[in-house]
User: Which sequence fits this backbone?
């Protein structure tokens, strides 16, 4: 009986440990192993070589792709934060009815009832040369010819990513703001604090864990993006995710694995930096 009690905790964690090993540790270990294999241009052989990593860090094309990916991450993060913070603040502090807070938040989630691909494709007839936006601008006399940059450009990539991922920033910030004790805000108002001082000294610091969690979502999602970049840039722009997808398509598995390892490490470093800057344990 005593022996069974000693074994019982291990049996309880066994299924989760097994899933963790099968679907996370072993795949990552396999990718890491393949990243050191040799690739001759038409075949790959098991080996231990740093050539794949050396090729990545010595190639201006690869480095430019990484810089382009970081650019997308920074721009999308900044825009989603600028959109999410006022929306979350409005829902948390200016909508006093809990029912309306829930209703308005659910309205924000309506676009997410459809798949990412459908929402992405829906922008093409809107942004295209003969699309709704260009036709409207020409009808208003803003321009006398279609503006080409709306579609198949970095602008289109960023716009669609912001559309796809804004909710991942809104939800955690809204959740953090809902936990803020309203008595703190009332006390600050009674003490004569201005709206800006309340934002700076109370709401922003207490909403920081939500901002950090939303930032982790945005960073991890945009770093691995390839479908949006491929479709909305028309192949004129690139990201590391799209690069890996292309290399897999051309059977360059060692190079794709090396890029995947670097992408994973960079993403983990960014997440680690966010977690070091903000303590999110209050939200967990």
Assistant:
């Amino acid at each position: 009986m005593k022996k069974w009690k000693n074994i019982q905790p291990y049996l309880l964690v066994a299924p989760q440990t097994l899933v963790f090993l099968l679907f996370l540790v072993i795949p990552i270990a396999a990718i890491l192993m393949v990243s050191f294999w040799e690739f001759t241009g038409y075949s790959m052989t098991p080996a231990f070589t740093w050539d794949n990593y050396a090729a990545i860090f010595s190639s201006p094309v690869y480095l430019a792709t990484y810089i382009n990916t970081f650019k997308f991450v920074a721009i999308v993060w900044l825009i989603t934060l600028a959109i999410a913070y006022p929306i979350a603040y409005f829902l948390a502090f200016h909508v006093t009815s809990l029912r309306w807070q829930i209703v308005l938040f659910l309205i924000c989630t309506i676009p997410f009832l459809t798949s990412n691909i459908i929402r992405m494709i829906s922008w093409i007839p809107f942004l295209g040369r003969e699309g709704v936006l260009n036709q409207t601008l020409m009808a208003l006399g803003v321009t006398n010819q279609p503006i080409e940059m709306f579609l198949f450009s970095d602008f289109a990539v960023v716009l669609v990513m912001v559309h796809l991922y804004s909710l991942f920033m809104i939800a955690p910030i809204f959740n953090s703001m809902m936990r803020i004790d309203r008595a703190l805000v009332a006390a600050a108002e009674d003490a004569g604090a201005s709206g800006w001082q309340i934002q700076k000294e109370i709401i922003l610091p207490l909403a920081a864990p939500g901002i950090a969690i939303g930032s982790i979502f945005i960073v991890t999602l945009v770093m691995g993006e390839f479908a949006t970049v491929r479709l909305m840039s028309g192949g004129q722009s690139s990201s590391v995710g799209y690069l890996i997808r292309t290399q897999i398509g051309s059977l360059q598995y060692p190079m794709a694995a090396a890029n995947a390892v670097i992408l994973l490490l960079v993403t983990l470093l960014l997440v680690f930096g966010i977690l070091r800057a903000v303590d999110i344990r209050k939200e967990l």
The two ends are 36 Å apart (CA to CA).
